[in-house]
Amino acid sequence: MEMEIEAEEEQVQMEPPKIHRLDDSVVNRIAAGEVIQRPVSAVKELVENSLDACSSSINVVVKDGGLKLIQVSDDGHGIRYEDLPILCERHTTSKLSTFEDLQSIKSMGFRGEALASMTYVAHVTVTTITKGQLHGYRVSYKDGVMEHEPKACAAVKGTQIMVENLFYNMTARRKTLQNSADDYSKIVDVLSRFAIHHMNVSFSCRKHGAARADVNSVATISRIDAIRSVYGVSVARCLMKVEALDKDPSSSVFQMEGFISNSNYVAKKITMVLFINDRLVDCTALKRALEIVYAATLPKASKPFIYMAIILPPEHVDVNVHPTKREVSLLNQEIIIEKIQSVVESRLRSSNETQTFQEQAVKPTPSCQMVSSNDSNRNPSPSGSKLQKVPVHKMVRTDSSDPAGRLHVYLQPESCGHLERNTSLTAIRSSVRQRRNPKETADLTSLQELIDEIDRNCHSGLLDIVRHCTYIGMADDVFALLQHDTHLYLANVVNLRGIMVILSRDVGKLKMSSN
Ligand SMILES: Nc1ncnc2c1ncn2[C@@H]1O[C@H](COP(=O)(O)OP(=O)(O)OP(=O)(O)O)[C@@H](O)[C@H]1O
Ligand SMILES: [Mg+2]
């Protein structure tokens, strides 16, 4: 009771806390912590600056996951000597003058905050040279200002920015990041994404001191080549092109182009590389919508690889909605997502329907595999790199117990224009027929009894399928691929073995072998 009275008295006596203005250095550091959330945010900002500077080559070096050093070098237009004193002040930019400019902005930067933010949480050194200069300049920055006059130095075309000791003055942030091992992989991931979209620019990313680069892309004019060089041939060969165009101002105006994975691409998690008006962004709603389509259409390949570039009129995109510019807001977003969703859905359905299986002839011929219709953009790399072919020995089904002989190797989305679905199926059927020898089937009366029992107890539709199916081959250790009419079935042979042995004798159609 006494304590209650004391608390009440305390409340009455407590004065409201005094409001005071925060010191600029505190404000700037707090703001900087929002813009540069982790090393990968600094890399993204620096690379975007290099792209805005019309670079054709961007090289990134990283030490200690970016905490010790991030160095981004480009061959862009450089920074004018006169601009160096204010380069790293907050809200200084060459990309925006009035608020209205935001409506038509094409550059990735516009706030004049990225470099400034870095100087509040790290040591920043800039080396740059502009066209026609005999030498470059180097200058270091701290808390938004130059630490000394720019020093003349030797320089190669463009700009190099070094960010050292990131978060040296933010103990908690540095500690949490030191324990996280995946910052370098996040940097590699972001560089990979830039590399496949900005395919006219060559990118490299390596750990400091490492001889090998973890991203090493060369400029190309083919998107699929760009994807192949960054994500590998195994991803590229599973992709199909998607496109959408809407010009109806009463609903939505946009253009979409991309590559999406087919049923052969199996991964543990979705990879969604999305660019909207050339900005690398996330769009959770679109990602979710596409995941739903994949789960419904290709349940076994429901974690797809998706590269998508969407172009909208600049005035339909609000780029100023996130401190790291990671998200944008679109006019008619729901309609756009719905339309893209339905384009992807019909693309997946049509690719599913037009999958064909082709057995390679005994005589080695140019390799042809499963066809995904309209799988375009298969030009050889302009850099001269050839499409990686599946080795010939892997294309021939020799033994189903041998991984190289399993049907999976036939399921490559490589286009083979001159062979149609029907001819390839006929080839399979005829070669299967050749292998069969109905005379070899046993003639035991006990089997007849079992057949009668199966006839009595089994579902008639299933029996009809098994009776009249064509055995194509083993898809893996457990599942056989069977064809009935125009349908393909994956049959669990462990469950079906008894029935199949019996029916093979009955109708002389199937012959089980030790393979
Ligand atoms: N690599 C570079 N090459 C040429 N100029 C550069 C480079 N990096 C930065 N700049 C210049 O420095 C300015 C400030 O860069 P900063 O990244 O801080 O701001 P921004 O790109 O204009 O906007 P945002 O904060 O949205 O990125 C840019 O406007 C640009 O003029
Ligand atoms: Mg910028």
Automatic annotation (TrEMBL):
Residues 351-392 are annotated as: Disordered. Keywords: DNA damage, DNA repair, Nucleus. GO terms for cellular component: mismatch repair complex; nucleus. Pfam families: DNA_mis_repair, HATPase_c_3, Mlh1_C. Residues 227-349 form the DNA mismatch repair protein S5 domain. GO terms for molecular function: ATP binding; ATP hydrolysis activity; ATP-dependent DNA damage sensor activity; mismatched DNA binding. Residues 372-385 have a biased composition (Low complexity). SMART domains: DNA_mis_repair. It is found in: Nucleus. The keyword NAD does not apply. One of its GO terms (biological process) is mismatch repair. It comes from the Eukaryota. Belongs to the DNA mismatch repair MutL/HexB family. This is DNA mismatch repair protein S5 domain-containing protein.
